[in-house]
């Protein structure tokens, strides 16, 4: 509609609950200053009490409130739309639908809509082309025709300063629906002593200064950062937010895991990971994540029995593994086989049936180690070893990995305990890349096996699940203990591309609580090994010692993380490097399933549909093939002389070429 990109954006924080919209004289003129829309409880759900005050906050007491329903708001908009609304409010026609839809959904929803309607009505009252409309006067019970033209607009919307003796503006208290007085500056800002309940987004463009209030949501437990609820941002302003990687975006509400990176805290369902790791088995933690509470002894026995009953796979599925090349990466096999499970177990894919969802969860927890072990056996050409109900979860996996029909295999209890700890510590980790992938797939109502397969695919990436593999590759690059000082120097040199893998963490800024637990496991495993026969483990041990003592690493909190320790422990257990991420997937499945199941109980669940900041070309006209230039060639000559591979602009800088005909 001819508006330019805003030249100024400002977020102002306030903790005043439901403060009346202030239409300062620097923006709208001198007549109208306050608009308030309050849920009218006595009129029933979906009705609002509308107040408009002029000149001063004190005049609020003389203003007359009128009750208007959500339907009347829609009728007002329909009467004004397309007749007198100008280009300064181009997105206004979309607002009533977004604001009024579902306005009878309870008290909290009514208050949210009343705040949105308040901002909407304030724009109507203050707009020079709308304020004198008869429809608006009838709706509000007042006349709002401006007596003087608006003064020059400033770049930032700022309310005029109030004299110290002037009475404070009236506030609407959310949660009670009542109107009461508040103190100036009460609870405003971070240092005001109260929780912020809203932020004000202010911006200006060629049509003038604008602002909109957005609610601030706080976690019920008090843990974690407050978040700005921007769901109504586009409907109110025409803006979207831009946050590549979602590093500042809360995508869902979850009660499963919590991380405080600054404090080195990881909790599952409120229990610190240190307490769970010292007292629980992996299946006990899996039950906690999926069911929501720690099991009683009978519940745990039943859960273990259910897992044992379900960890064999369908016999016909075994032929599926035979279709892969012997050198296929186990993660490629995992993605394919897990995605195919829905064809073998169609009796548990109804996502709207809680019993079927639980059955799918049990099956996935049980079958993942079996599928992983079969993938390994297939890759090395050995016969498949079936699971044993006589063995615990981790020991059973080691048995399926390393036993053969030729001789008995006894699981080393130290190794089984180490693997149990690795699985437990990787069970869940809040909204990481793979977990978010599972939730996004779930939002489309895909079957559970497809959702978990999507999570496995995301986990496969070296920046996520492949981190412990990268540690082993780095150790291979360093080679010997004697070369450590040279590589430490390279790591300290910002101009050198070499980086020490497995040190520091993106989330944990001081220490990773899982790393401390894995460090103990690592040392217990090493105690039973002849490290001289394992030079890579000897190298890792020396590298750990240097990193923990070197001032450069200590000052920057570049401690060995869980990937460092889990990588070298898995190597010590004899697990091949390309199986590391597979083990990660086996562990994380319980967390993925908990997150997947939780999404179905979230009333705010919607199909995920991120927006984009388009950087492509503007609209252009299609050019027929014959007019696009280049030498002409007959179809026959083209077949006789295939064109050479040509670089594609879409893959510029990626070292990729497009080969015609492939």
Any key phrases for this structure?
disordered N terminus, four-stranded antiparallel beta sheet, alpha+beta, 24 helices, about 40% helix, 15 strands, about 650 residues
Write structural notes for this entry:
- The protein has helices spanning 25-28, 70-80, 95-100, 107-126, 134-140, 233-237, 273-279, 282-291, 297-310, 315-321, 330-344, 354-380, 393-402, 413-425, 433-443, 448-459, 467-478, 484-492, 513-527, 535-549, 551-555, 562-572, 580-599, 635-640, and strands spanning 8-14, 21-22, 32-39, 47-54, 66-69, 170-173, 178-181, 198-205, 208-217, 227-228, 257-260, 265-268, 271-272, 646-647, 657-658.
- A hairpin with a 4-residue loop joins β11 and β12.
- It is globular.
- It has a four-stranded antiparallel sheet with strand order 1-8-9-10. A four-stranded antiparallel sheet has the order 2-3-4-5.
- It has 662 residues and is α+β, with helices and mostly antiparallel strands.
- The chain contains 24 helices and 15 strands.
- The chain is 41% helix and 11% strand.
How do the strands and helices of this protein lay out in sequence?
Elements: E1 8-14, E2 21-22, H1 25-28, E3 32-39, E4 47-54, E5 66-69, H2 70-80, H3 95-100, H4 107-126, H5 134-140, E6 170-173, E7 178-181, E8 198-205, E9 208-217, E10 227-228, H6 233-237, E11 257-260, E12 265-268, E13 271-272, H7 273-279, H8 282-291, H9 297-310, H10 315-321, H11 330-344, H12 354-380, H13 393-402, H14 413-425, H15 433-443, H16 448-459, H17 467-478, H18 484-492, H19 513-527, H20 535-549, H21 551-555, H22 562-572, H23 580-599, H24 635-640, E14 646-647, E15 657-658
Antiparallel strand pairs: 1-8, 2-3, 3-4, 4-5, 6-7, 8-9, 9-10, 11-12, 12-13, 14-15
Helix pairs in contact: 8-14, 8-23, 9-12, 11-12, 11-16, 12-13, 12-23, 13-14, 14-19, 14-23, 15-16, 15-23, 16-23, 17-22, 19-22
